[in-house]
Prior knowledge:
mainly alpha; two-stranded antiparallel sheet; elongated; TPR repeat; cell cycle; repeat
Amino acid sequence: MASVHESLYFNPMLTNGVVHANVFGVRDWVTPHKMALLVLLSELGRAGPQLGLLERRRLNRLLLPLLQGPDMALSRLRKAIEECCPHLAGSVHIRLKLMAEGELKDMEQFFDDLSDSFSGTEPEVHKTSVVGLFLRHMILAYNKLSFSQVYKLYTALQQYFQKDEKKDGADENEMELTNPEELDGKMEKEELDGPLREEEIACSGPLSQKQAEYFLSQQASLLKNDETKALAPASLQKELNNLLKFNPDFAEAHYLSYLNSLRVQDVFSSTHSLLHYFDRLILTGAESKSNGDEGYGRSLRYAALNLAALHCRFGHYQQAELALQEAIRIAQESNDHVCLQHCLSWLYILEQKIFDSCVLLEHSVNKSLHFGLPYLASLGIQSLVQQRAFAGKAANKLMDALKDSDLLHWKHSLSELIDISIAQKTAIWRLYGRSTMALQQAQTLLSMNSLEAVNVGVQQNNTESFAVVLCHLAELHAEQGYFAAASEILKHLKERFPPNSQHAQLWMLFDQKIQFERAMNDGRYHVADSLVAGITALNSIEGVYRKAIVLKAQNQMSEAHKLLQKLLIHCQKIKNTEMVIRVLLCMAELYWRSSCHTIALPVLLQALALAREYSLQYLASETVLNLAFSQLILGIPEQALNILHMAIEPVLAHGAVLDKGCAMFLVAKCQVASAASYTPQKKIEALESAILNLNEAKTYFAKVDCKEQLRDVLYFQARLFHTLGRTQERNKCAMLFRQLHQELPAHGVPLINAFK
């Protein structure tokens, strides 16, 4: 078996006209593209005194990505050089042409002359510089080639140059038929230092070890920060398979394959690649070299820990628990406190699926701080804050805890956790119903990310926190009636997070919810019903809740009530308090429509108690509005007006436009009902005030295109104008009412309708 491996390690191979060796042997090999780079370096040394400072600076910036990146077509290389120094591009082309159209001895002489760059008291290139190391690697790789391999290299150089000549001829024919301005525009869009394109990788041939390492690090960075600029999952996997074909023991390639499989939710491939990564890590001895005798055990325990995280991500909690127990056992035997802290964090995540306990998490945070693990400690604080938010803790205490974690972030420059913290604050303010504060936090994160750029021209704005904030921003705009702005944000999200990316489900859910709300406002219940399936696929609880809302709107009361009862039991079991309150409010409305007003009151009081217990201020205000409506139906409008004044302020300050309109409409109804016992003069004043409130409600409803509510407001206004004897205004409202009544499904319009 050893002899087979040795033959694989050291035998030179020829693929696609490129002479190379396996990465376990020669670390680099000569290709036509690298010969073009050698010619560029040679011409750069000759033209040194004639080059201006700006041209030299541009060429120096160009060299590093050229030396590190994969091979590219000669035409693209020439364009890149022309942008920096047109004169030098011409010299490189002429030198390559002479070599390709000459004889084999010309190429031999070229490599012999390369060594002169290091000679003299003041050499053109220092041996230890980036360029010097590249030149020495190329000279060494060329000297190790046999005569037959040298001839194959020369043939590959001729083919490389001839392809460029043929392409130039085709381009000249196209230029005669193409507008020169359009051609210039296309050329300006090409950037050398940008991420690698699929066609470039596909035609570049096998990579050397250094090129492979650069390719892997670049793609891993893109997967983390800007997934859209990385290669497509299928193309990336194809390139990784190509790398592993030449070097099956390349551990980093297996790990990138694992990350790539996670993008497409492939359980089998991701598990397979992860296990191969740790197997190869032990096989190559990389861990043992850096960690001594502990390297082998360290790989095993972190392999088990990563396997537990993988199973947890895919919802395989039983397998995750078994893998985690194995990691804990090995870490305890090795006395590895850092690994144990990571295990403790994942143990909390697994235990959270069974019962809510802060003990493990608090212990994890304290131990992480003790062992100097700020990243893990901060994540623990974030999780603790999230759990306390769902438990109904006061917002000021949660913000104080997040402030402490922010101090850790800034102290240790943990920029990724700063983004997560701001996204967490946005979500907490949304949970508590403070839309203004949520909007402020969202804008803060967007402003921060627009200033922070990372490698290869990528901005760190394609992370999960950025997606969460943008989704909240889209929903906030939709709630205020700015549907065009919400559509623009969602369009931006679709560009940043394509459907095959790992965070695409976030915007998909928000997009479906916004479309659902618009369809319900417009009275298109059949459209809303068709959207329920998509919402259910992304979030089953939201889907069932929306289905009940559609059934309620279609007057299928018994079916809606059965669905809400099942959903209520499930949400109480999993302790989803926010949804429990929303379900209770929906059930109360069902009781109103069924003329069971007295049954609705205990349900509303239960919802109000929960909202106040868990500090959900906006839901509490909405529940108070529903209680006021119940009191209005029961014939005590004065009491309804009194409690309305308590709850309407948070709704007008932080509520959605539809809720604001419903609140103002309810105030007008209560004013009219209370005016029955007033003196004539006071009654007229009350009705005038009700008309003003109805005008405000009408503005809100028009903003979200809620035609059914607009029709009710116009009917109510027409009746009030008739009572006041204002015939012209009454006729105008009656005409508008008739137009809407003909558009919408025909049903009775009672004077006192449902709250929403």
